[in-house]
Amino acid sequence: MAAPRNNNSSCWGVPDVYKHHEQKKICISRPKYRDGRRDRAVKVYTINLESNYLMIQGVPAIGVMTELIQLCALYGAVEEYRPLDEYPAEEFTEVYLVKFQKLTSARAAKRRMDEKSFYGGLLHVCYVPEYETVEDTRLKLQDRRRYIIRAVRNKAREKEQKEAVNEKPTSSEKATTSETVIARYEKTVVPDNTGNSSNICHYSGFPLLPFPPQEYHYYRHGNPHWTIPTEDKMGTLHNAIIDTKRLEPQSSSSYQASLDKDRGTEQRLTLNQAPAAVRFVPRTTHLENRKRRMEEAADHSLTDVTINNEPLIGPKLPEPPKLDMEDVSLNTTANLIRNTLKKVESVPDLKPVEKKVKPRRRI
Amino acid sequence: MWKKDSSEGSDRFEYLQTLVTEFQDTDSEEAKEQVLANLANFAYDPNNMENLRELQVPDLFLDMLTEDNANFVEFGMGGLCNLSMDPECRDVILQSNGISLVTNCLSNQREETVLSAITTLMNLTTPSSRAEITDPAILQCMLRFSLSESPRLRSLAAVFLQDGCSQEQVARAEQQMQGQQTAVGIPLPKDD
Fold it and tell me: Signal peptide location in the record (chain B) (predicted)?
């Protein structure tokens, strides 16, 4: 690889070709369980490799710089940019250096633009941290550290909240998880016991992890459940995982579940009734699911689903034949559900049914 | 790829556990590298840090630092660089003699490994570990790096020196270096 030729730390100096600019060969030998949707090379990303400076190669030399920068700007504010004429480029292509205001924008731009077609050319986008000044680097590390500490603290707080809410773990769940053989990494040298007593516990079962929260079940009818992709993820698998922290009851749901003493029974109810657990489901399907579930709920007797209490306004439509459940409170509940169903059915679906689901990234 | 029929938390944990298991069980060097890189990349996401900690992955990464395979070292060091941003992982690494193992990586031939080591040392700095991390030998190493031709190495070393220690400490280290050949000692990494 070309050795660094200059000591010029200004980002506008003659660029060097570094190894980390190269696209590595993709890995073709991964076993299926960890083979992602996209082919990727074997590479580790650290904060040092990432940067708010991106280099974009493969731009067709047909005068589309403005369009390129406009495309970049979709992902965040662009502070500076210029063509890198001195950088080795394939024939009829150009290379550009783009400085984003934020690292997260650069990350998103890289993820979305790398390997994409642009005016007939194939873009190759990579980070170029060597263009950072000392101050850039320091800020980058500081921001990263702050973000991690904040994220970890939030996670700890959520966990505490979930544990407080989830006071009725189902014993069946615990049984299944304890059957899992725990294969934690075993050190080659036996550690001394200071602070490592937790090692021993781990080998004997699955007792120390917090019980996986289940209360998301009774919010499922209310919310879209996929993680809103945040800029700082590198396209890891968890993008496809439901983010359980978004489970607060939303008033966007026309079917409001109240958090009160009914919670416990509601949990039981939805555990019986809910289909397969949290999965990656588009919003429109949620609406349909919710409708269907409410119809089912109206058919089966439910004891404790709470509905909003808004009175119907306007002329009453001829009512469908009522089911008498031979119990005053059940009948009241069923009526309330029926009323709400009417309301829900009158709301048109705003989103088009065909919604392109973006493929989620893997490492 | 995630199992989608149980809760997110245990899914994630189980998947990571599967990776660790494969790493321990497989004989294939190539598979080990892939899994190690996976784990190191997962360590970048704060959502995974607790799970990785419970699976003792910090120790896994530390063990990689003394391997012959340069990829193992690079990926392990990268994983530590990512994990050490989390205060709890940081403490685990400190307890497992992390400073000394990471410092040894400062003399690695691969620039990426060295960069990860410098960043990790910065992350490992706490009031109690500061003295060890600003040992004159390390400061001198950083001073040499700050004169490197590689811009990334220069910048990182500069941040280390400016943020990690006082001006007096740096000055003292510089003085000590006067008496030595600057080229001898910890070699600068090759950018190959």
Answer: none
